[in-house]
């Protein structure tokens, strides 16, 4: 059985916007094993001279990560950054209240920023607006970006780093509306603090971009009102407002889980509308964009909650979800949604990079491996270049419990100097035939890759990841599943059930 056909209309002249490379960001928080035995493990067989795992760094490059957010997350809201700079042997451990873990302070600002620099990654730094404020935020910025001759810049130089780090992207706190956040604030309290901190930081370095905290999720009771209030205080100062969202299968409801991209799409549109309303009210020509700096599949029902964690040491295993082919299909579909909002979402961070709900997993002293979710992210980061095309998609719908009617097929495409990438998700349980119409342009598909959903429970360990990859990820059968003559105005692609597919080729307009 095959579902009704779908149709995708694309044209090289119709675009959404340029794909910002920061869309393929990730996140390293001092949480569980994200840092210690994640990116950093002195004594590991692959460790470099700075104690960072080379195998993880190589996989990070393969993943295509461009930006990494640091040091949190919930962690940042009770963090004293100055306790983690200078000689490591003189640093004192402290109890992180967010994750109830003793933080050794072995990796701090300098270690992270120098790792990012060596790996060609743009850092995205967060300041503590939970238990601290304007003075500490300005000091950290001065430490990172200041020239010689001031207190904090001179401290950086004394610690061995002459050249400023020139960090451009800064988060004004993290999830400040969340009751789980140390130093939680209401919208007015946070808006005033973010305004004062942002103004002072821009006096230190006017070239930086600032991210104001949006709602922690669309389900927060103050969603919408929070964005309006915070932006009324900060609209002229900040460049982006943050969004965070996690998705997972609930009670075997595959249809709703596969439709998660529709929920993400609605979330983006509502936050953008909230921001635009403030801009219109203030008669501003400025357009606030979105930093979707936490997104992923996360089975939160498996996590007991921060308050139920015992106090632990030595990088405990926290939130180490193991992923399936189904999870990977959903991650691919969420990337489709982000690409289709390239005009409004220039920054996004898959949370997180290593071990904690991550595409990369490690064993202390052992190997590092790719989870199934690694593959759609890496493929999209590699292929999605240039402009996102403004597609028109018509498809049958699927009825879901969580999202109502959702399209059975979603699509995104990018174009750079004739090189086209087309990303397609089939959310239905049956194969679907997609007509890709390209009137006035010639489309030639050269190669492709596809992930199909599995029906097996995830199992801890690299063997499971390798099995899922072998059975559900691989090259797409272009010859067998793509039909269309060289001079035709449309190309037909047959998608497997519950699958995500990436195709690459050329799209040329007639001369």
Question: Could you provide a short overview of the structure?
Answer:
It is built from twelve helices and 26 strands.
Describe the protein in words.
By secondary structure, the chain is an alpha/beta fold. It has two domains: 6-10 and 389-508, Golgi alpha-mannosidase II (Immunoglobulin-like); 21-384, TIM Barrel (Alpha-Beta Barrel), CATH 3.20.20. The protein is 26% helix and 25% strand. It contains twelve helices and 26 strands. It has helices at residues 54-63, 109-118, 134-145, 151-158, 187-204, 225-234, 254-258, 260-281, 325-339, 374-383, 462-472, 478-481, and strands at residues 6-9, 15-18, 25-27, 67-70, 94-96, 101-103, 122-127, 169-172, 209-212, 240-247, 289-297, 347-350, 360-362, 368-370, 387-389, 392-394, 397-400, 404-407, 409-416, 419-426, 432-437, 442-452, 473-475, 482-483, 490-495, 499-508. The strands form six sheets. The chain has an eight-stranded parallel β-barrel with strand order 3-4-7-8-9-10-11-12, surrounded by six helices. Strands 2-15-19-20-26-22-23 form a seven-stranded antiparallel beta sheet. A hairpin with a 5-residue loop joins strand 13 (360-362) and strand 14 (368-370). Helix 9 packs parallel to helix 10 (374-383). It is globular and about 70 Å long. The model has no long low-confidence stretch (mean pLDDT 96).
């Amino acid at each position: 059985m095959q579902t009704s056909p779908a149709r995708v209309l694309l044209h090289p002249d119709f675009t959404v916007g340029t794909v910002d490379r920061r869309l393929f960001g990730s996140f390293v928080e001092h949480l569980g094993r994200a840092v210690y035995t994640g990116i950093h493990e002195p004594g590991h067989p692959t460790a470099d001279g700075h104690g960072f795992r080379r195998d993880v760094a190589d996989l990070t490059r393969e993943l295509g990560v461009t930006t990494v957010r640091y040091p949190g997350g919930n962690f940042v809201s009770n963090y004293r950054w100055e306790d983690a700079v200078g000689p490591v042997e003189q640093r004192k451990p402290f109890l992180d209240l967010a994750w109830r873990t003793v933080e050794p302070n072995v990796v701090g600002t300098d270690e992270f920023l120098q790792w990012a620099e060596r790996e060609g990654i743009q850092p995205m730094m967060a300041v503590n607006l939970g238990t601290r404020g304007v003075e500490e935020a300005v000091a950290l910025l001065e430490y990172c970006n200041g020239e010689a001759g001031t207190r904090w810049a001179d401290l950086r130089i004394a610690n061995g780093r002459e050249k400023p780090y020139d960090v451009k992207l800064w988060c004004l706190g993290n999830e400040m509306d969340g009751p789980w956040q140390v130093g939680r604030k209401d919208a007015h309290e946070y808006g005033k603090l973010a305004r004062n901190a942002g103004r002072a930081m821009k006096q230190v370095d006017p070239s930086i971009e600032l991210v104001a905290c949006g709602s922690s999720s669309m389900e927060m009771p103050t969603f919408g009102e929070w964005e309006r209030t915070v932006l009324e205080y900060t609209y002229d100062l900040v460049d982006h407002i943050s969004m965070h969202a996690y998705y997972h299968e609930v009670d075997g409801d595959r249809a709703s889980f596969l439709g998660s991209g529709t929920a993400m799409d609605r979330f983006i549109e509502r936050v953008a509308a909230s921001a635009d309303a403030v801009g219109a009210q203030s008669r501003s020509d400025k357009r606030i964009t979105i930093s979707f700096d936490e997104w992923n599949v996360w089975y939160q029902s498996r996590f007991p909650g921060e308050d139920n964690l015992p106090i632990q040491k030595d990088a405990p295993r926290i939130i180490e979800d193991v992923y399936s082919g189904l999870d990977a299909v959903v991650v691919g579909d969420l990337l489709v949604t982000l690409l289709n909002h390239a005009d409004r979402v220039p920054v996004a961070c898959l949370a997180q990079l290593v071990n904690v709900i991550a595409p990369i997993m490690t064993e202390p002293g052992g190997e590092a491996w790719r989870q199934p979710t690694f593959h759609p992210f890496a493929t999209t980061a590699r292929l999605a270049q240039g402009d996102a095309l403004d597609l028109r998609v018509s498809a049958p719908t699927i009825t879901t419990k969580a999202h109502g009617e959702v399209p059975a097929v979603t699509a995104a495409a990018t174009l750079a100097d004739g090189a086209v990438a087309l990303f397609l998700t089939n959310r239905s349980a049956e194969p679907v035939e997609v007509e890709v119409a390209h009137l006035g342009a010639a489309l030639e598909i050269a190669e492709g890759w596809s992930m199909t959903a599995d029906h097996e429970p995830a199992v801890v360990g690299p063997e499971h990841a390798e099995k899922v990859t072998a059975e559900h990820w691989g090259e797409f059968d272009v010859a067998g599943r793509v039909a269309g003559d060289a001079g035709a105005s449309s190309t037909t692609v047959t998608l497997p059930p519950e699958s995500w597919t990436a195709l690459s080729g050329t799209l040329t307009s007639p001369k």
